[in-house]
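Whiteboard transcription, Tuesday session. T.W. wrote the C-alpha cells on the left side:
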C-alpha cells in the first residue's frame, strides 16, 4: 500500500479548494513513551504505541493556498530553496493532495519555538499543514483522519493534532487505518516541561535514519520494543492516578532505553553531547537532594525536564535559560 492509497481512502477524489486560503496551528510534542522503530516505512507505521504531551506555545502556524505552477515554501518569512531536503520532503507530501499536476501550493509556516531548539518541528509542521489543508479544501475530516494524514508526513505529527496527553495507537492493519492518535481526557495542571537547549545545533543523524539503524542492527531493539509496551501501561496508570514519581521515572527510563538501543546500533547512533550529560548529572544530583525532577531526550542533544510547578523556581535557578512550558494552561 502507498500513501496515495491511504489518502484516497480518507478523502476520496481530489478537487480544487473551495476557499482561497487555509490555516492551521499545532503544538510540537514530547514523547514520554517514545516512537523509535517502524513496522512500515512507507506509511510511518510504528512498531509500538507511544504517548506524548503537547508543548503549549511551541508550535507551528501554517497557511496554505494554491497557485498555477511550482510549489512555494516559506519558513519564518523566508523562502525555502526548492531543491533543499526540507522543500522536497514537503513537495512529496503535497503531491498526495494535488488535484491536478499543474496545481502548486504556497505553504507559509511560522515556527513559534526558539529557533535551533532542536525540537521536533516536523511534528508540529506536518500536523499544522494537514489542519491547514483540511481548512483550505473543506474536507471536514475527523481528528482520527487528520492524525492519519499527519502521520504520512511524519510519525510524531500524528500526535501533534491534539493538545494535552496523547496516545498514538500502533495498530496492526497493513493500511494503517487503525494507527492514529487520540487525546486522553486527563489533565494535569501542575505538570511542567522545561526545555533546556544545551546546543542549538540541528545537524546530525535524522530520526528516520536513526530508527532504521537501530531496528536493523541494535542487539537491544527487541528488548526496547518490549519495554515500550510495559512503559505505556505504567504511564497511563501514573497519569490516571497523578503519580508524578512514576510518570517521571518511567519517562526518563524510556528515553534512556531508546538512547541505549540506538547507541548499540552499527553504525552507532549517538545524540547526546557532553553538555547533555552535564544536564543529566545535574538532574540526578537534584533528585539526590530530594527534588523530584526527571528528564527526557529525543533525537538531539537537548534535554526536556519534567517537574511540578512547585519546583519551578528551583529549576530556573539551576538551569539558566530554561524555557518552562505549561502543557495544561488554565
Ligand atoms: C518520538 N522521535 O516519539 C520519537 C522520540 C524522536 C525521538 O518521533 O520518520 O520525525 O518522520 O516518522 O516522527 C521523531 O521521529 O520520524 C520522533 P518519521 P519522526 O517523539
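and on the right, the sequence the group agreed on:
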Amino acid at each position: 500500500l502507498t500513501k496515495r492509497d491511504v489518502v484516497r481512502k480518507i478523502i476520496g477524489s481530489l478537487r480544487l479548494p473551495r476557499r482561497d486560503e487555509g490555516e492551521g496551528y499545532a503544538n510540537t510534542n514530547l514523547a514520554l513513551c517514545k516512537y523509535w522503530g517502524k513496522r512500515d516505512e512507507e506509511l510511518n507505521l510504528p512498531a509500538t504505541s507511544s504517548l506524548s504531551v503537547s508543548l503549549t506555545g511551541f508550535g507551528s502556524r501554517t497557511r496554505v493556498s494554491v497557485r498555477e505552477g511550482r510549489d512555494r515554501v516559506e519558513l519564518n518569512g523566508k523562502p525555502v530553496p526548492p531543491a533543499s531536503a526540507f522543500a522536497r520532503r514537503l513537495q512529496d507530501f503535497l503531491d498526495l493532495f494535488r488535484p491536478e499536476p499543474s496545481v502548486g501550493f504556497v505553504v507559509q509556516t511560522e515556527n513559534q519555538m526558539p529557533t535551533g531548539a532542536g525540537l521536533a518541528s516536523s511534528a508540529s509542521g506536518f500536523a499544522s499543514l494537514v489542519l491547514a489543508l483540511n481548512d483550505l479544501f473543506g474536507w471536514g475530516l475527523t481528528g482520527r483522519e487528520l492524525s492519519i494524514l499527519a502521520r504520512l508526513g511524519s510519525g510524531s505529527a500524528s500526535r501533534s493534532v491534539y493538545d494535552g496527553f496523547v496516545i498514538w495507537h500502533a495498530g496492526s492493519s497493513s493500511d494503517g487505518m487503525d494507527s492514529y492518535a487520540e487525546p486522553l481526557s486527563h489533565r494535569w495542571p501542575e505538570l511542567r516541561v522545561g526545555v533546556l537547549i544545551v546546543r542549538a545545533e540541528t545537524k546530525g543523524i535524522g530520526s528516520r535514519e536513526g530508527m532504521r539503524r537501530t531496528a536493523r542492527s541494535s542487539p537491544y531493539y527487541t528488548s526496547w520494543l518490549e519495554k515500550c509496551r510495559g512503559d505505556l501501561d505504567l504511564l497511563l496508570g501514573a497519569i490516571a492516578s497523578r503519580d508524578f514519581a512514576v510518570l517521571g521515572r518511567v519517562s526518563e527510563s524510556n528515553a534512556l532505553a531508546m538512547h541505549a538501543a540506538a547507541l548499540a546500533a552499527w553504525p552507532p547512533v549517538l545524540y547526546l553531547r557532553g553538555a547533555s550529560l552535564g544536564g543529566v548529572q545535574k538532574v540526578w544530583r537534584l533528585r539526590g537532594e530530594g527534588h523530584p525532577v526527571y528528564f527526557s531526550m529525543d533525537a538531539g542533544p537537548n534535554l526536556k525536564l519534567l517537574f511540578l510547578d512547585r519546583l519551578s523556581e528551583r529549576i530556573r535557578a539551576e538551569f539558566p535559560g530554561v524555557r518552562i512550558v505549561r502543557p495544561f494552561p488554565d
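Someone added at the bottom: DSSP finds nine helices and 13 strands in the chain.
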